[in-house]
Amino acid sequence: MDQNAVTQELQQLQGIYLLITEFLVQYSFKILGAIIIFMLGMWIASKVAKLVARQFAKHGIDISLSNFVCNFTRILIIIMVGIIAMGKLGISITPMVAAIGAASLGLGLAIQGMLSNYAAGITIIVSKPFVVGNTISIQGVAGVVKEIFLGRTLLSNEEGEEITIPNKHIVGEILHNSFANKLVETHFNIHYHTDTEAVIKSIEQVLKTSAKVYQDKGSQVGINDFNSIGIEIGVRYWVPTNTYYQDKFETNLAVYKALKSQGVEIARPKAIHIEP
User: Fold this and answer.
1) pTM over 0.85
2) 102 and 47, same structural domain?
């Protein structure tokens, strides 16, 4: 290797050394400061998130909402600290903030359905119009609340089906909550000459002694209406939602047997015969 080549390589190495040295002299404290700020911000974010979690636990707020708020708080603090750290390095954050704002707007429009579900989920968790184990009916769908998530609520019914309802379809709608039980309503007709009081007492006795009927809410039996067929008897009682149909069928059978044993005949429309 000739002398000129060696001299050229030494000059290049010297130039790199000077560049690195100048960079470290000029930016080392800024880099160190940015790292310290970012690490301090990570520590603060962790502490604040734990503080929020403790406060939520202290006031008995749902764990799903607690986790969501804690994670959101941690991420928000880290983003803010990251922006401050970049500013410490001399990086202009104005274009970045504008870009983040534009991206957030576009992302918000793209996932507005998801965000509305989360907002509705927070409303449900905070206001507690129902809890796990309650029986609710919303927009024609009914079932026992199995789990409540931020974005959706999971119901189950007697058939073992799982029903998922987006939370935005729950908040703001008419909600029926019968807690752990469900109302059974039955109507049938008896003839006008039948002893109505005896029929009512017989049905009340069946309902009072039935293990299938939820006794704490009581039951109701009475004359519901009068029509051309006969006297319409109305029967209302509560059964556990998880066994709604099974308990309803068994109770109705017990009522039918009791009426049959007393010779009570269920009134029905008379067939009309047309002579040819």
Assistant:
1) no
2) yes
24 residue type, one letter: L
Dist. CA 239–CA 247, nearest whole Å = 7
Whether the pLDDT of residue 10 is over 70: the answer is no
172 is a domain residue: yes
Locate 115 and state its tokens: 């965000």
In which domain, by residue range, is 94 found? 3-110
Whether residue 85 lies inside any domain: the answer is: yes
pLDDT, tens digit (0-9, with 9 covering 90-100), for 61-109: 666 677 777 888 888 888 888 888 777 766 666 666 666 666 665 555 5
CATH code of the domain in which 237 resides: 3.30.70.100
Decide the pairing of beta strands 175-179 and 152-156.
unpaired
Under 8 Å between Cβ of 188 and 196: no
- Give the HSE-up count for residue 53: Cα atoms under 13 Å, Cβ half-sphere: 14
Question: Strand, helix or coil at 218?
Answer: coil
Report whether 224 contacts 190 (CB < 8 A): no
AA letter at 99: A
What number of residues does the chain have? 276
Q: What is the mean pLDDT of residues 27-45?
A: 81
The residue among 110, 138, 169 that closes a domain is 110
Q: Which residues contact 47 (CB under 8 A, 6 or more apart)?
A: none
Residue 186 domain-assigned (yes or no): yes
The two tokens of residue 250 are: 């068994």
Question: Both tokens of residue 207?
Answer: 């309902």
